[in-house]
Amino acid sequence: MSGQIIDLQAWFETPPGRYLLAWEQAQFDHAVADVFGYHALQLGVAEIDGLRTNRMPHRWLALSDPQHARRSALLTDFSALPFAANSLDLVVLPHTLELSLDPHATLREVERVLVPEGRVVICGLNPASLWGMRQRRAHLYRRLGFGELFLPEAGEFIGFRRMRDWLRLLSFEVESGRFGAYRPAVDSENLLERFRWMDHAGERWWPILGAVYFLVAVKRVRGMRLLSADWRRAASRATAPVPIAGKVHRDAPDPHH
Description:
Layout: H1 8-11, H2 15-32, E1 39-43, E2 58-63, E3 74-75, E4 88-94, H3 96-99, H4 103-113, E5 114-125, H5 130-143, H6 160-169, E6 172-180, H7 189-194, H8 197-205, E7 212-219, H9 231-239
Parallel strand pairs: 1-2, 1-4, 2-3, 4-5
Antiparallel strand pairs: 5-7, 6-7
């Protein structure tokens, strides 16, 4: 890889970046297609269209960097979103937390704006992968005065288990999770294509070592009970008069007299 890649937007234009971007886009397309509601939000990384298959009437892209902002994007601080509490049905975070200066604050803000039973969809780079190991080795070489990074310099890896623990502390329930992108950490498009078989082998033999993880979590609220679609009929049945067996009305005539 020629030159030092320090920006995620630029890195997505490299062969490994395009490979990872294609996998992540496919995961978002599948995950959000059947999530229903009215309001959906994507935070960061405009190169991924995390809401393109979702059918909610109101969808926004929010960015925090003015240099990468688009005309149609909402420019905001991810730790202080301009939305009321319990107002969004879906939030997608493509590498948002690992690029955030305060990922805890960002995730707490996502929990605040999501409605009960709302969903958050997250993808992040896996530090326990071949790509993560190459990045750590590159950091070591740079401290010794040589070498260059394979992945973007900005941000900090957040492992899958660590991310899952953060979600649980905020009363999220992880609905699904998976890993992907098992090809080795190489810069050549030809080499990446040659190792295509590793994607299928990795899913079967070393599933937790994918370069990226992807998870969907649901906001749970304790003590809240969702009503079923036929709650009105159930309520009417409960209030209807019910005859009581064995009860004799005082004003009813005795059949033996």
